[in-house]
Specification:
single chain; mainly beta; four-stranded antiparallel sheet
Length: 146
C-alpha cells in the first residue's frame, strides 16, 4: 500500500491518490498535453485605460475621525467614486456598523471591538455607511480611498 499510517492518519506517498470508490491506492495519471495552440476566447477590454478588467491605482484618500454614540449616525457618505474604505476602532466600546442602513445591537453588517480594523472587500460598496455605539461614545478612524 503506497501510504504510511501515522497516529491513525494515512499519509499518502507522492505519485499516488486514494480512490474511495475502489478503496485502493492508484498511481496518479499525468495529464496528456497535445502540441498546438488552445483558443480560450477573447475579452473586449474597451478603450485604453477604461477597461473594467484592469485595476487603476487609487491616488487619493481621506481620513476622518468619527465620534459615534448610541443614537448612531453616518460615518461615510455615499460615494460612487469610492474604490475602498477602512475603519479602525480607536476608543470606546463595541460599535455596530451597517452598510446602507442604521444598525442596532441586534441588526448590523459587522461589529468592531476597540483595536479592530475593517477593510472593505470587493465588490466595493458605494452607499452610505452608518454606525451605532454600544457604549456612551466610541471613536472611529475612517479612511475612504477614491
Amino acid at each position: 500500500m503506497p501510504g504510511i499510517l501515522l497516529d491513525y492518519h494515512l499519509i499518502p506517498i507522492a505519485g499516488y491518490i486514494y480512490n474511495p470508490s475502489t478503496l485502493a491506492w492508484e498511481r496518479m495519471q499525468q495529464p496528456v498535453l497535445e502540441a498546438g495552440s488552445v483558443v480560450v476566447g477573447s475579452v473586449n477590454q474597451g478603450a485604453a485605460g477604461s477597461s473594467a478588467w484592469l485595476v487603476t491605482p487609487s491616488k487619493a484618500s481621506a481620513l476622518t475621525s468619527a465620534a459615534v454614540d448610541p443614537s448612531g449616525g453616518s460615518i461615510l457618505a455615499a460615494n460612487t467614486n469610492r474604490r475602498g474604505a477602512m475603519i479602525f476602532h480607536k476608543t470606546g466600546g463595541i460599535v455596530y456598523v451597517g452598510l446602507g442602513f442604521a444598525p442596532t445591537a441586534t441588526e448590523f453588517t459587522f461589529a468592531l471591538e476597540p483595536g479592530d480594523l475593517w477593510e472593505m472587500p470587493q465588490p466595493i460598496f458605494t452607499g452610505a455607511i452608518q454606525a451605532t455605539a454600544g457604549t456612551p461614545q466610541a471613536t472611529l478612524m475612517v479612511t475612504e480611498v477614491t
